[in-house]
Amino acid sequence: MNNQPIQKNDIVTINVTALGLEGEGIGRVDTFAVFVPNALVGDIVEVKIIKVKSHFGYGKIINIVTPSKARINPACESFPQCGGCQMQHMDYRQQLLWKQQAVTDSLVRIGKLQDVVVHPTIGMADPTHYRNKAQYPIRQNTVTGEIEIGFFAKQSHRIVQSDSCMIGHKDNAILIQIVKEWMKKNHIRAYDETSGKGLMRHLYTRTTHAKQEWMVVLVTNGDKQLPFESLIQVIQTQLPSIKSIYQNINTRRDNTILGSQNRLLWGESYLFDTIGDCTFRISPHSFFQVNSTQTAVLYQTAIDYADLKGHETVFDLYCGIGTISLFLANKAKKVIGIEVVPQAIEDANENAKINNITNTKFLTGTAEDITPKLQKQGIKPDIIVIDPPRKGCEQALLDILVVLNPPKIVYVSCNPATLARDLNFLTQNGYTVKAVQPVDMFPWTRHVETVVLIERK
Ligand code: SAH
Fold first, then answer.
1. What is the pTM of this model?
2. CA angle, residues 309, 339, 216, in degrees to nearest 5
3. How sure is the predictor about 375, in pLDDT bands with cuts at 50, 70 and 90?
4. In testing the pocket of ligand 1, which one of 275, 318, 368, 374 has its CB within 8 Å of the most ligand atoms?
5. pLDDT per residue as tens digits for the range 55-101
6. Which of 245, 308, 370, 452 is the most interior residue, by most CB within 10 Å?
7. Which residues does residue 383 pair with via DSSP β-bridges, in sequence order?
8. Catalytic residue ranges
9. Pairing between strand 25-29 and 11-19?
10. Which domains does the chain have, with CATH numbers?
């Protein structure tokens, strides 16, 4: 006996009343929740039920009966096939409101925080072509044999090709064309994931914000010398602001994009980009925020929340290439950055030198290992900045934060769910949330970055 109100393949009409964290619409049949990708709050949609679980189901839109007021025509022809963006069908202002609401919901539901005011999301004046990095897989179409360079489709490794990605740099289209033609002319095969054969795996590009200079990385499955000279010549002619061309060798049989070995084929080893008053050295492996315009906004918010007077010792945990540390250094007595990737720490030390900053110290290791050691040495931070990856902080780190008991913590988060979980712990252990500021680093996607000011009670 099955009590579920819907079965697989049913066609039902649904009022969409909420959006999930993945950007999917949520409606109900009786009390039974149905998740509908690409549906928006306010849509009335006819959906085909494609999967039924014990307490919820999944549906696919077959007809939009009444569109939501937030619904727009996606500017990108590859939406929704392309796995890059999730929210191209939603008006940009509505995206900002939704992201603010998503942060609030997480703080209430997961963080159990009542009465916290989440400020309106800071968006972009022009939310297009903002990405400074692109990673295009290169594959051979299994049916036609054509070379394909594009993005992976949602939950698949099928390539979606597009000449006009609205979040990436426009000139990526030139590079895609150049690499395709060069491969064709020289009979170079694209990588095949099933057999592990074929040479060209990825076309990876980086552009600087300040001077619009380019780095191109050709990721190859093996060390074979290819006729790179002709490729370099065409790139130089068609993209005069090219500064650096690398081959990266990746023979791993997994989804990692870059292998560990880089070979400089032409030009400079590094790009240099400027955010605010700081200059940063960027190599193929460096972590660097992908939206430079909004990175300045994000860091400025963190600086405002830190409100340094000049006498403070600051810990910058998960410091990457030292970006936030260097922004804070001019206003603090000392900044200690901690980061697990050794190459990033090398970059951080170099970046301190480039910017003539002498009051920073960068340590390699995990935040949860190194911070207790600093505590045992008797170092007492006045402010701790944390910027963890999506999974948030390890419990061991949260424990030591409470022991160190700094007057102020500034938490920069790329995942509202883990942020809320960590804030729940901190607020139960002597801290209070003073301010929450979402920043839109990734327009047209479901992602939201948040800066939180946390103070000792
Ligand atoms: N604050 C930097 C980087 C943030 S991204 C910036 O704004 O550019 C998160 C960083 O945390 C990455 O550089 C990642 O390598 C690092 N990381 C991941 N787990 C870590 C851990 N357990 N301890 C320290 N660093 C870690």
1. 0.94
2. 110
3. very high
4. 318
5. 899 999 999 999 999 999 999 999 989 889 999 999 999 999 999 99
6. 452
7. 314, 408
8. 414
9. antiparallel
10. 11-66 (2.40.50.140), 101-125+291-456 (3.40.50.150), 133-272 (2.40.50.1070)
